[in-house]
Amino acid sequence: MKNEFYHYAPRVKRMTASIIREILKISSRPGLISFAGGLPSPDSFPLKEFERAVRDTVRLDGIRALQYTLTDGILPLRNYLCRWLSKQEIVVEPPNMLLTHGSQQALDLLGKIFLAPGDSVLVENPSYLGAIQCFNGYEAKYVTVPIDDRGLRIDKAEEKLKSHKVKFIYVVPTFHNPAGTTMDVPRRLNLIKLAKKIDVPIVEDDPYSLIRFKGNWVPSIYSLAKGKGVIYLSTFSKLLSPGIRLGYVLAEKEIIAKLVLAKQAADLQTNTFIQYAVYHYCQHGYLEKHIPTIIRDYAHKAGLMLAAMEEFFPKEVKWFEPQGGMFVWTILPEGLKASRVFQKSIEQNVAFVDGSVFFANGGGENTMRLNFTNSSDSDLRLGISRLGKVIKSFL
Amino acid sequence: MKNEFYHYAPRVKRMTASIIREILKISSRPGLISFAGGLPSPDSFPLKEFERAVRDTVRLDGIRALQYTLTDGILPLRNYLCRWLSKQEIVVEPPNMLLTHGSQQALDLLGKIFLAPGDSVLVENPSYLGAIQCFNGYEAKYVTVPIDDRGLRIDKAEEKLKSHKVKFIYVVPTFHNPAGTTMDVPRRLNLIKLAKKIDVPIVEDDPYSLIRFKGNWVPSIYSLAKGKGVIYLSTFSKLLSPGIRLGYVLAEKEIIAKLVLAKQAADLQTNTFIQYAVYHYCQHGYLEKHIPTIIRDYAHKAGLMLAAMEEFFPKEVKWFEPQGGMFVWTILPEGLKASRVFQKSIEQNVAFVDGSVFFANGGGENTMRLNFTNSSDSDLRLGISRLGKVIKSFL
C-alpha cells in the first residue's frame, strides 16, 4: 500500500538516485574492484599536513573557528585563493568569490538563481552526472551537443542554438568528466564568442585542471574571457580532500551577490572550522607542494590502466587517452550495452559506471566510464583483465 | 546603467538579504554592543574538548575522514544520536535520520521536496527568519497564525485552515525564535490532531530545547506523535558550535529517502571530517557534560538582561520572560516603530533585530528581538541602559 500522506512538489519526480552514489554503497564489499567512483586515491590525502593545519586552527583561531562567519567565506582564504589563482592567469578579487560546500553546491545555487521549470541548459553530451541531477531538480531541459577529442563541437552548438534558447552553457572543458578530453584554445575562444552572441553565460566547471600529467597547460575559459560572462567553479576535493566539502565560485559581483542570497537560505555559510584549516594548509605551502605528488600518482595509475586495457581489451573497444583527471572514457562496439557488461562484471567483482547515465537526453548505451585513481596497482590490472574477459564474452 | 546580461529565475525576486546576516557584518565594529545575532556565547564553545575529538579523528579515522562518504551521514554518529535522542523520549533508528549542513539545510531540502511556486506553509506569527527566507526561495505563500505565551494559537490555526490549504505546518515549539515562548503539551497534542485531520505534516524545528534554565521539560511534538507525520530538525549549532555546520532531520523513511536525493544534488553529502570529529566528541561524553555549562551561562546572561530591562526600560515596554533559548521578545508601545528605535540606538552603538522581519506577511513593527548570549555581562547592562534611554526619547 502506497503512503499517500505526503504530497511532494512536482520537481521531486525529476529527482533520481545517483547511480554513482549507489555504487559507493557497495564499494566496501570485500574483494570489489571499483572503477566506478570519482573517488580520489586515498594515498593522495595529505593527512599529516592537514592535521598540522587543524592544530594551527585550534591554536591560532580558537573560538573564532567555531563561530558563525560571513556567508561569502572568510577573507584570509579568499585572499589566498586570489593570489594563487593569479598564477593560473585568473585575475580575481575576493568580492568575485564565494566559498561553497563543494562545487556541487555551486551548481545547485546556480540552478536556483537561473533555472525556472522548463528552462534549458546547453550541456556537453556526455556531461557530468552531478550537474544533470542538480539541474533536474530545477526541472530543466537540456540542449545536448556532442564532444570529440578537442572538446565541445562548437559548430554543432551553433547549429542547435539557432532553434533552441538556453539559460546558460555548462561545460567541463579540462579533463572532462566523464570523457577525459580537453577543449582546445581555439574552441574556447569560439565558445566565448558564441555565448556573447546569444547573450548567455558560460558555466565552467574545473575540478581537475591542475592534475595534468601529459601535454601543455591550457588557460581557463574564465581567464580567456577576463571573467566577463563566465562563471567558474572549482574545488579542493581533488587537490586536498573531498570529505571536507570545500569549493568556490568565481563570477561577476552581481552574480556573487545573488549566489550569496541563495546560499544564506541553503545553509547560511560554509563550515568556518574547515575554512580556517584549509587557509592554514594553504599558508604553509602544502597545497602547491602536494599537487606534484597527486600528478605522479595519477599518471602512474592512468598508465597502468591504459596498458592493461591495451593488453586485455578486444580491439573492437575504443577509448580516449586522458592527459589528466581521473577517468578513461571507453566505447564498446555499437550495439553492445554497457548495462549488460556491468551485470556480468559485477558478478566478477568489478564495478564501473554505465556511460549512458551521462547523456542528459538519453543515448550512449555502449559507453563506460573507468576511474583509475581509487584502485591499487594490482587491482587495476586484475580488474581490467576481468573486464576484458567479460567484454570478449559478448563479442 | 543596469547590467541586463544575466536573466534570473523568477524566484530570485523573492530572495532578500537577511537583516541578521547584514548585522553580522557590522558586528566586528569596535565598541558595538550587539543584541542582534543568534550567535552562541563564544565562552560556551568547548574548544579543548573539540580539539581532542579532532585529534582522535586524525589518529583513529585517518584518510577515511577525508574521503567521500554516504549521503545519509556516517553510521557511528547516527547510531550515537539515536541512543542519545532516546533519553529525550525520541524513538528513532538510523534510517529515519539524515545529517545535514546545519538545520538551515534541512529547511532548504524540505522546501525543495514539498514546495511548488504558490504553495502555502502555515507559520507562527512571528516565525524564524531563516525559514521564511528559505521558503521564499521556493516562492511560497504563508498562512500566519498568532502565538501567545503558551505557543501557537491552535484555535486560530483551525480557523485559518478552514479556508486555506497548506503543504506543511512549520513551528519552533520550544524556546521560540524570536518569541522565546514554549508551546504547552495540550496544544502540542491538539496540533498533532489538527495536522492529522487536514492531512499535512508538521515540521518541528528544535534547536534550543536542551538549553532550558527554568520550568519543566516538555516532550517534543515528534515524540508525542511517535514520529508519524512529524519531521523533526535539530542541530549542534547551539550545543557545540554553529561554525561546524552540523544538523540532522528525523522523519519517516519515505521522507528521508526524498531528502537524500535532494541532498545529493545540493552538495553530495555532509562534511565527513566534521562528522567523525563530532562522533568522537560525543563518544567521550563531552556533549552531555557540556550542556549544563551552557545552561548556567545562558541563565546568568538572561537574568542580567531581564534585570537591566526592569531597571532601564520604561513601563510601557513589555516582554516575554524566556525559560530557555537565546532571546527576549520585546513589545514597544503600539505606534512606536522598532526601525526608528534601531536608527537611534545604532548611533549609540547598540544593535538589535527589528521584530517585523519575523512576520511572514508583514506586521509587528513595534517588536524587537534581543539576544542575550553573545554579550559580556557589563555590555548586557550598558547596552540595555542605552537602549532604554533611546526608547524613552520617543515616548
Structural class based on helices, strands and sheet pairing of chain A: alpha/beta
Compute the CA-based radius of gyration of chain A: 21 Å
Q: Roughly what is the average pLDDT of chain A, rounded to an integer? A: 95
For this structure, the CATH topology of the largest domain in chain A is Aspartate Aminotransferase, domain 2
Residues in β-strands, percent of chain A: 5-15%
First-to-last CA distance of chain A: 44 Å
Question: SSE string of chain A, helix = H, strand = E?
Answer: HEHHEHEHEEHEHEHEEHHHEEHEEEH
The CATH architecture of the largest domain in chain A can be given as: 3-Layer(aba) Sandwich
CATH superfamily caption of the largest domain in chain A: Type I PLP-dependent aspartate aminotransferase-like (Major domain)
Q: What can you see in these coordinates?
A:
Two copies of one chain form a homodimer. Chain A has 395 residues and is an alpha/beta fold. Chain A has two domains: 10-46 and 290-394, Aspartate Aminotransferase, domain 1 (Alpha-Beta Complex), CATH 3.90.1150.10; 67-287, Type I PLP-dependent aspartate aminotransferase-like (Major domain) (Aspartate Aminotransferase, domain 2), CATH 3.40.640. Chain A contains 13 helices and 14 strands. Chain A has helices at residues 19-26, 47-61, 75-86, 102-114, 129-136, 154-163, 185-198, 221-224, 253-267, 272-283, 286-312, 338-347, 377-394, and strands spanning 33-34, 97-100, 120-125, 141-148, 151-152, 168-171, 202-205, 230-235, 247-250, 318-319, 327-331, 350-351, 353-354, 367-371. In chain A, helix 2 crosses helix 10 (272-283), helix 4 (102-114) crosses helix 9 and helix 11 runs parallel beside helix 13 (377-394). At the A-B interface, helix 1, helix 2, helix 4, helix 5 and helix 9 of A face helix 1, helix 2, helix 4, helix 5 and helix 9 of B.
